[in-house]
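Record type: monomer structure entry
Structure origin: computed from sequence
Chain ID: A
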Amino acid sequence: MERATISRQQQTQRAFLGAALMDPARAREYIIKLVPGMFDEGVSRTVFSAVQQLTMAGEPVDVITVINRASADEIRPAVVAMAETCPSVSNIGSYAAQILEDYRYSLLQGDLMKCMAKDAMDSDCVCRQLRRTLAVQDAIRSTQTDSTARDFDAVLDSALARLDEPDDSLKLGWPELDRYGVFGRQRVCVVAGRPGCGKTDFSLNLAARLSKRYKVYYLTLEETAEALMDRILSKVSRIDSGKLTNKSLAPREREIINNAAARLRQHHNMMLDADSNLTIDGLEAKLMQYKPDIAFIDHIGLLSPTDPRQTEYQRVSEITRRLKVAAMKMGIVVVELCQINRAGVKGNEGRFCNLEDLRGSGTIEQDANSAIFVENRRTEDSTELRGEDAYQDTAVMYAKNREGPTGVVSMRWQPQYHQWQPTPKEEYEEIDQMNWPQ
């Protein structure tokens, strides 16, 4: 019975409030732009006022905190109903826009009624009232305008001006990979593959090469910083990593390691972090502190939740969205190492996994500008490799690239040295003017 008496405007307001209670993080940008006067007197206005106060204070927003802030137990049934019957959280922007439109229309209607009232005012008064009405409407509109929305010609002029600016994307010095241009600033790149396919070695090689010119932050959530350094020492010295792990170095090999370490001490562009309890809040703080050009997160599935009540989908969605925002705001590149779903590990017999195999949340692919898949390691090729001439033929696939081409690059992987490099070509001579030891 009550549902039949609710107007369309009231339904929209309750849908918005329900969405705000269900997903306050997504609702925040709309909550801070609206005002209580835009909601009908009574429950809707009381609930919105409580939600807005909690949001502004940085406090949690849920059914209980809203009821407590409103100091009105009688609104409990309505608040619970809002949270339970919200049509769609994803439409909260549309609900907010309709509330604003309804509010503006009601103001216009009231002002026009004043102007049209017989003998209420003369022509000059009507004109003044109309000017005030327009001023109020312009003021409301200006407070709601999205600062990221620009006129077509303004964007065109900006795009043309950018053509004359120098290229500030990060370069590896490997033309085969650089042609894809995935390390542009303000972008997120996913690196994924089956367990044991070498994605950490591949990413560490990318980080090492980029650190010749750029400031690199490498976060490992699976091993210690010393274990990462062992990989780097093995790569630089060309000494089998097993000997470093087992501490079975011959005197000559230890001398080679010491010489490599002496050269590496002059290298200050890479920060290694092994904080296994890091949350996305802590990661954002570290990115602000170290201000890298590029950050590697190995891997995002191991970041601790900010809220233990979150589902796995909610946790990963929050991480990918906030890393995307951090990359854009800070003008950096974020590389997210990702695991593959179990179905992709067990059932995918193809050469590469694909975007649907990414583990945790569809937002990993949605929020990424690009995605690189390391070739699945074939079982018959999993024999232990020894010596400088031993390597495994493999490849990486650029499966997604919003700003450039997609394709496959043939690579060679020497797991005994944690070394990756493009497959040599007769007509290709690597351009490497930096000083990172090989």
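Annotation 1: The chain has two domains: 2-144, 175-422.
Annotation 2: The first strand starts at residue 187 and ends at 192.
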